[in-house]
Amino acid sequence: MKADSIAPSPAGWTPLFGAWLVAASSMLGALFLGEVMELPPCVLCWWQRIAMFPLVLILPAGMFPLDRSVIRYALPLTLAGWLVALFHVLLVAGVIPERIQPCSRGVSCKEIQIEWFGFLTIPTLSLIAFTLIAGLLLFAQHRMSR
């Protein structure tokens, strides 16, 4: 009997829903910053959006009905977005040399457009969101495999 033919435990639904909430909140936040506050995204922000926005559609597709294979599709996108967000955070912090940044035109990837509480920048928020989503997906995988 194949592992995928076994019905997944419904206990994994809640972490998937939490991951979707984080992804949807992140997408709405990015749209708010771009469209309402008129803050133009840099190249690295666009790549993070490319990884985040599909999660808002992919995760509900795996929740109704509950399908554990959704993690197989969502986790690579999440990890790709996490790596770009980590690169962006390290670039803004000055750990990565400025000559490596991919922004040659438009908004500089090193520019800090928003800083809340003295440390929360847009790349940091993105890194936190991708970390939460990855953690929730791994937790859902663990709960569904029981």
In short:
Keywords: Chaperone, Disulfide bond, Electron transport, Membrane, Oxidoreductase, Redox-active center, Transmembrane, Transmembrane helix, Transport. The chain is mostly helical and 146 residues long. It has helices at residues 13-36, 43-52, 55-63, 70-93, 122-144.
How would you describe what is shown here?
- This is Disulfide bond formation protein B.
- The chain crosses the membrane at residues 12-34, 46-66, 73-96, 116-140.
- The chain has 146 residues and is mainly α.
- Helices cover 62% and strands 0% of the residues.
- The chain is built from five helices and no strands.
- It has helices spanning 13-36, 43-52, 55-63, 70-93, 122-144.
- It is elongated and about 50 Å long.
**Using only CA atoms, what is the Rg?**
17 Å
* Category by helix and strand content: mainly alpha
Biggest sheet layout: none
List the helices and strands in order. HHHHH
Q: How many angstroms separate the termini?
A: 16 Å
Main location: membrane
Organism: Aromatoleum petrolei
Protein name: Disulfide bond formation protein B
Keywords: Chaperone, Disulfide bond, Electron transport, Membrane, Oxidoreductase, Redox-active center, Transmembrane, Transmembrane helix, Transport
Tags for this model:
transport, 146 residues, mainly alpha, 62% helix, single chain, elongated, transmembrane helix, Disulphide_bond_form_BdbC
What's the layout of helices and strands?
Elements: H1 13-36, H2 43-52, H3 55-63, H4 70-93, H5 122-144
Helix pairs in contact: 1-3, 1-5, 2-4, 3-4, 4-5
